[in-house]
Amino acid sequence: MASVNDRREHIATLVDEFGFLSVKDLSEICQVSEMTIRRDLELLDGQQRLQRTFGGAASLRPRPVESSLGDRFQFLTKPEGKLVDRVDVLIATSVNPKYDGLLLEQVGKKNIPIIAESLGVQNAETVVAVDNYHAAQDLGRWAGGYAQQHWGSKAVVLDLTYHLVNTQARSRGFLAGLKEVIPAAESLLSLNPQSRYETAYQLTRDALTVYPQINIIFTINDIIAWGAINACKDLERDASSLIVLPFGLEGDTLKDALLEASYVKAGLAMFPEIVGPTCVEAAILAFHHSPLPGQLVTPFAVLTPETLSEWYARGESGWKLRWEVARERLALPFGFDLSGTQPASLLPRRIGFIVPFMEHEWYQNLTATMQSHAAQFHIEFEIVDVDKSLEDEVDLRRREIARCAADLVAPGEVVLIDGGPLSNYLAEALLGKQSITVITNAMPVFDLLRGNPGIILISTGGAYRSSSQMLVGPTAEGALRELRADKVFLMVAGITFDFGLSHTNISEVTMKQAMIRSAREVILLADHTIFGQESIVQVAPLTVVHKLITDDALPASTRLDLSKLGIQIILANV
Fold first, then answer.
1. Cβ(66)–Cβ(35) under 8 Å?
2. 488: which strand partners?
3. C-alpha to C-alpha distance for 30 and 34, rounded to whole angstroms
4. pLDDT digits over 96-141, tens only?
């Protein structure tokens, strides 16, 4: 019989694989009671391994959206080189604190202007965004009027929201507007579908099953609305007894749904056709160092099936904004010429755009309008792959840490090199060294250095572990008992003040411990991402470390606390 931990690991894996599984499904798969499954899900939810929902659990892992929102937008080919060397201006949407604090900090150091879209980011010249609270408040007032007219002022709300400041403002604004009209309106549930179609679908099904009295579903974007709409359809909810109100009307999908006047009776239009060019115009002004306000407020309008055709025309290629109506009725951002007739002198060569959710029609259409508007000025436009850019930035920092480590190796010294993400970079940095001895259990390090006649190379021997390409076991540990090194360059998977240095595999841990015992000086190589993590097996307390080479993204407070332990901090120059 599988252990409790094995069962929970299996549950987490299954939920990630399928996106959502019900308590009943998991009970049958694991052959335990539904009560046991509920306890398992509560624990896994607390560990942030999955999201507990009514009747089951949803994955927290990003997945491609399987919906009728259209094909995924194709990314433009990214040129080689670092982002900060490629773009003259960056348009950025806040992705997560880790990304904002790492890549955008480097952009700021290069004095590259940043235009924030939707939500402020550090060092931004301005934020191009709708007034989220007041826009949603208008939609809430409309919902109140609809509920008065059709349901005798009964209003029970399911709020499908997101954790960011701007999306939370939408949820608050909607409820405030609704209660202006119907003070007794009830906000029954506020749930976070992680801005994912399948999670929104399942949460809506669960909520409507448990609380059939819900008659208003407010969603902070279109992809969540589309999940809610399809849940209503599959539950065969009467469209006259329930409405779905999206904040966005970002593309064709929800405009088509609005035209049908089934579940969607109104929606808040944010006009990506206006926001996109506004971002580009702001980028041009920022490149000129022209003054910009703290926020460039973009317009909005509550649209209904009756008014949709006043604002948009439906053609073979989809819905197109009626610009003559927009210019007449909307307050376009002050000082912006959206016709693309600005003089072509002193323009940025390339504008980059960070996109967090490319499956959303908002970003698909925003990207298309930005690219089109930039092309009028012959400005190159690049979509920035968030994950790849962050990976590149961390990789750059690791290379600099390795270079600093190599600088510490003097002729005549004997050094131990541990295996890990940084070891290959360290080996490359040592290639030009002469008259040094390197002892290693990392096969990639051995292969890189064996062509240099100026380096005496010693392998520890041992059993080969293919997953990490390292030599481990009693033979390797025995070899280290007979050797003495001036320095060991150590790498681990986790570093905390409580648990110290930790790693993932016991056979590798015992090798690291043997290396520590064999060296006169322990030098830890660790970028900032390793800190705050605890792996499975403890290697040693932090006090065994003499020097730490890290990058400047490690907070100053953490560096000070490490210094108090007697550890010398060396910052790589990134």
1. no
2. 416, 522
3. 10
4. 655 556 666 667 677 899 999 998 888 899 999 999 999 999 999 9
71 occurs within a structural domain:
no
- Give, as one character, the DSSP assignment of residue 567: P
Reading the block at residue 571, the tokens are 């910052």
CB neighbour list of residue 16: distance below 8 Å, 6 or more residues apart: 50, 59, 61
> C-alpha distances in angstroms, 274 versus 322, 383, 448?
11, 19, 54
Q: What angle do CA 219, 223, 229 make, to 5 degrees?
A: 70
3-class SS string, 281-324? HHHHHHHCCCCCCCEEEECCEEECCCCHHHHEEEECCEEEECHH
Residue 534 CA neighbour count, 13 Å, CB half: 7
C-alpha span between 494 and 352 (Å, rounded): 34
What average pLDDT does this structure show over 73-80?
45
Digit-coded pLDDT (tens) for 544-564: 999 999 998 888 899 999 999
- Here the tokens at position 366 are 């925003």
Does residue 158 share a domain with residue 245? yes
Number of domains in the chain: 4
Taking the C-alpha atoms of residue 158 and residue 396, their distance in angstroms, rounded to an integer, is 45
The residue among 495 and 384 whose pLDDT is bigger is: 495
For residue 195, which phi and psi values (nearest 5 degrees)? 60, 40
Alpha carbons 469 and 505: distance in angstroms, whole number: 13
Q: Kindly tell me if the per-residue pLDDT of 323 is higher than 70.
A: yes
What's the domain range around 518?
408-571
Q: What is the pTM of this model?
A: 0.69
CA distance 246 to 232: 14
Q: Are residues 495 and 511 in the same domain?
A: yes
